[in-house]
Amino acid sequence: MGVFVDLLLVFILVTVGIISSATAAKVRHLKWEVEYMHWSPDGQEGVVIAINGQFPGPTIRARAGDTLHLQLTNKLHTEGVVIHWHGIRQIGTPWADGTASISQCAINPGETFLYRFKVDRAGTYFYHGHYGMQRSAGLYGSLIVDVAEGEKEKFEYDGEFNILLSDWWHKGSHEQEVDLSSKPMRWIGEPQSLLVNGRGQFNCSMAAHFSNSSAVQCKLRGSEQYAPYILKVHPNKTYRLRIASSTALASLNLAIGNHKMRVVEADGNYVKPFTVDNIDIYSGDSYSVLFRTDQSSSQNYWLSATVRGREPHTPPAFAILNYLPTSASILPISPPPPSPRWDDYAYSKAFSNKIRALPGSPKPPQTHNRRIVLLNTQTYINGYTKWSINNVSLSLPSTPYLGSIKYGVGNAFDARSPPDRGPPGYDVMRPAPNPNSTYGSGVYMLKFNSTVDVILQNANALKENVSEIHPWHLHGHDFWVVGYGEGEFRERDAARFNLRDPPFRNTAVIYPYGWTAVRFVADNPGVWAFHCHIEPHLHLGMGVVFAEGVDLVQGLPNAAIACGLTGEMLIKNGTH
Ligand SMILES: [Cu+2]
Predict the structure, then answer these.
(1) What angle do CA 502, 309, 138 make, to 5 degrees?
(2) 542 C-alpha to center of ligand 1: Å?
(3) How far is the centre of ligand 1, averaged over its atoms, from the C-alpha of 533 (Å)?
């Protein structure tokens, strides 16, 4: 009898175990091939970096707690590749962060690399190339993490759509790279098209009849690679629109004609909901907004994205909000929604200031251990135009930092730490009298579990009266955006930091001639890039590298470090 009861108990426990593991986290296996393909993102054929024959790459859909097991084969033939999972903090797997020279060796042509990591938190994310100018070449896609089985979102909706915004040049990414690296530098210029889910129209405009321009009216069948993305909706429902921007350059404003949007998520974190007519979205940002289909169902509406912060030479991107049962081929009869003036920074700042954490969100520590001020300047090195941080232009080493720091390999990068402050007395409002800087590959070594404040200080660029927008993105962490200010940051400005309800994010913008303060806890062992998400700016050195707790990193795969000095180390140890 006793044995029977015991067996029954074992049976029940095993059954419960099987049921709970069936609903719990999954391992999702994916096999990707990355290759160049001919494609017409905006009606003019060019080459894009495609994944499994798709542009943009496939959307990854997973649940919080799942593990992605993604075998990536590089079929580019003549160049390396890596993929960064933007917004995924890579807790315990810093080697899977997908940053060439930082977290791993670039994957060589013909090689396969296994990215294995947990998507620990629900939210709207994306992925993109993090090597050279491969984001500009079209290497990106969406990564959507749903709440874990049995959990609920903190807002309700009847359906959802997903939009990935990007920008597109007719000049190929290799030529762009040569242009940027030339003396004198040739700027890549404004993109020819903005894309919504990889679709834009360069040869024609769907809204031509509303503008005075000479643009011709599009004649689209709907099956073209550049036909607009259609959002099919039913009347009187609430929809969630997930939006992310993987642009190489453009800052954007997005609106849905005649519809208001309620912002509920930013960078994978809940925000205190607020309602707006349109939202600003910088490269590296992601949002969820809710909108209600409360307009006349006998017509369709525009969804449009326009350029902000740079004098626009790029027409807006359009998608169509299609009210069923109206045909999707009927163009909206109202003009595209108005967008704020490209240089209305007060408008953008007001939007930034509306973004607050939802009550119950993680709170920032009330004190900091270290404060680093990063002065962003446009500089020269031997006549080459660069971007520099505290007068150092980031030049990535050939041996990735993660392996060289973990194994104590000497001479892999500059041993000297980069400065915690810019040059004293620097006037951020004027071009520098001496705009020269130097290359550097030094690392900001952060004390494990310490609280770090970073002040991103903007300045005048090389040209007088020019100061640009820079969206800064941190790998491996979220930070609290604790304050914005004008002019030069002074220590007394810290007294005004918002430590009550700052948004928890991975990307924060600095406005022209202003500063932005972020606070984070250095609690994720690894080596992490922190950089301007404008790809040509990063390429010209606009970034820094943080490292913390690297001795605690476990399970570094050989494939991540089999290059440069760590590659030599593997050969010497006979493990390669
Ligand atoms: Cu920038």
Answers:
(1) 90
(2) 7
(3) 6
CA of 469 to the centre of ligand 1 (A): 6
Predicted local confidence at residue 23, as pLDDT: 59
Q: What is the pTM of this model?
A: 0.94
Give distance in angstroms: CA of 532 to centre of ligand 1: 5
Measured over the CA atoms of residue 422, residue 494, residue 492 and residue 448, the dihedral's sign is negative
Query: Residue 21 half-sphere exposure, CB side, CA atoms within 13 Å?
Result: 7
- Name the 3-class secondary structure at 537: helix
Mean pLDDT of 57-80: 98
Give 531 Cα–ligand 1 centroid separation in angstroms: 8
Tell how far the Cα of 559 is from the centroid of ligand 1, in angstroms: 31
Res 17 pLDDT > 50? no
Q: How many CB atoms lie within 10 A of CB 187?
A: 11
Count other C-beta atoms under 10 Å from residue 282's C-beta. Answer: 24
Cite the DSSP H helix spans in 363-515.
Answer: 401-406
Nearest Cα residue to 455 out of 353, 534, 537, 530: 530
Q: How far is the CA of 512 from the centre of ligand 1 (A)?
A: 11
- For ligand 1, the distance from its centroid to the CA atom of residue 377, given in whole angstroms, is 10
The span from the CA of 357 to the CA of 480, in Å, is: 9
pLDDT score, position 576:
58
Task: Could you list the beta-strand ranges (E) of 224-268.
Answer: 230-233, 238-245, 251-256, 261-266
3-state SS string over 397-420? CCCCHHHHHHCCCCCCCCCCCCCC
Token match 């550049």: residue?
Answer: 226
In whole angstroms, how far apart are CA 397 and each of 107, 365, 572? 16, 34, 21
Q: What is the mean pLDDT of residues 338-362?
A: 96
Using the predicted structure, report yes or no on whether residue 244 has a pLDDT greater than 50.
Answer: yes
Q: Which residues contact 263 (CB under 8 A, 6 or more apart)?
A: 271, 273, 274, 275, 276, 279, 287, 288, 289, 354, 355
Single-letter amino acid, residue 21: S
Q: For position 11, what pLDDT does the model report?
A: 52
pLDDT value, residue 214: 77
How many whole angstroms from 283 Cα to the centroid of ligand 1?
Answer: 10
User: Is 81:115 a contact under the CB 8 Å cutoff?
Assistant: no
Q: Distance, CA 306 to ligand 1 centroid (Å)?
A: 19
Q: Which residue has the tokens 């929809």?
A: 239
Q: State the pairing for strand pair 507-510/470-474.
A: antiparallel
Decide: 544 and 531 in contact? Cβ < 8 Å.
yes
What's the pLDDT band for 16 if we cut at 50, 70, 90?
very low
Nearest Cα to 98, choosing from 178, 564, 480, 87? 87
Instruction: Give which of 392, 384, 249 is closest to 310, Cα–Cα.
Output: 249
